[in-house]
Amino acid sequence: MKLLFLLVLTACIVAGCSDSAGPEDEGEYTVLTPEDPQPGGDRLFGINPSESSEGFFPAFELAVEAGLQVTEINLSWDQIETSQGIYEDPYGVLEAITFYGFEDVEVFLTIAVINTVTRTVPDYLDGYDYNSPEVIQAFDNMIEWVLDQISPSVTIAALSIGNEVDILLDGSASWSDYEGFFVAAAANLNQSHPDLSIGVKCTVMNGLFKGEAGEIQSINQFTDMVMLTYYPLDDWFSVLPSSVVHEHFDQIVSYFPGAGIWIAEVGYPSGPACNSSETSQAHFFHEVFTAWDDHKDQIDFLLIDWLHEATPEQVAEWELYYGSSDPAFLEFLATLGLRNYDHTDKYAWVQLLAETNARGWN
């Protein structure tokens, strides 16, 4: 569900504070000992280092402490192409990510043609199908401009064409339209950037596990890796028991035998409106790393959303964007952070450090 998550260096990422402690969080937290941890090896570990009250650089240093290898930059097409053939670097993000090249952190680039609940194609292409020659050519022109802006010092770990596209796509005709667009766009990029890995982000809970497995499997015939976002919640934004992670990871890999899988976002709120707590959140990440070890040969990458909690101002923006004032939904967004906005630890952060340290990432 992450959305409009722009690069922190230029202060276009904000995060915030929320009182997320439940009754079971009183007192000190006892770290769960990692169970038979497997070396990180070739697996890639990522966090989106949303800033705290201390700003970006202290947040980034903490992410590095945890073993940061990859972070995500998510930009919508209509943020980049502001009118036909006119491109701009939103908030200076594409220039600013040169920093990551100097720090040996790879960038997972998402260009949202669909951004979760919204079609983000420029207005002049309204009325055109995704699979139309006009949209395909316009995307090709835009993405080539974007890639030209990125310093050669920056390693692009992969490109996702679309963000959680299954939430907006509805029905076989809609999926066929987007798949046709994706295949053409990826083919063009394969010609101009043959070393660039390309995929499309879909969801586990709302797509793969809710009747769209066939469509998600179909489009992933044409990707370099399967990209999935994972937030184990029920329809009322209450958390599922952390132990369910093992069953879910078993199911995920069963849908894509032999394919490399990226858990492109993973998160678990700590707020009581989601029937969660700091302890529950910490235990969830213990189970995530244990389950990842069980599938280390197929799940190549995992990225946590996100480092610090979101400010009330940011949550208010999301409320308008998503058109939902449901308290549990808003608390889900507000309390995903591993740490508090005031730059203090939550239990999940302490548990995460134990997990990444045990596997050699920090």
Topology readout:
Elements: E1 44-47, H1 56-65, E2 70-76, H2 77-80, E3 81-83, E4 86-87, H3 93-96, H4 98-102, E5 106-115, E6 118-119, H5 133-149, E7 156-163, H6 172-192, E8 198-199, E9 201-203, H7 204-208, H8 213-219, E10 226-230, H9 244-255, E11 261-266, H10 278-294, E12 299-304, H11 312-322, H12 327-334, H13 347-358
Parallel strand pairs: 1-12, 2-5, 5-7, 7-8, 9-10, 10-11, 11-12
Antiparallel strand pairs: 3-4, 5-6
Helix pairs in contact: 5-6, 10-13, 11-12
What does the model show?
With 362 residues, this protein is α/β, with parallel strands linked by helices. The protein has a single domain (8-358), classed as Glycosidases (TIM Barrel). It contains 13 helices and 12 strands. Strands 1-12-11-10-9 form a 5-stranded parallel β-sheet. Strands 2, 5, 6, 7 and 8 form a 5-stranded mixed β-sheet that branches. Strand 3 and strand 4 form a beta hairpin. Helix 5 (133-149) packs across helix 6 (172-192). The longest helix has 21 residues, at 172-192. The two termini are 28 Å apart. The model is unreliable at 1-24 (pLDDT under 50).
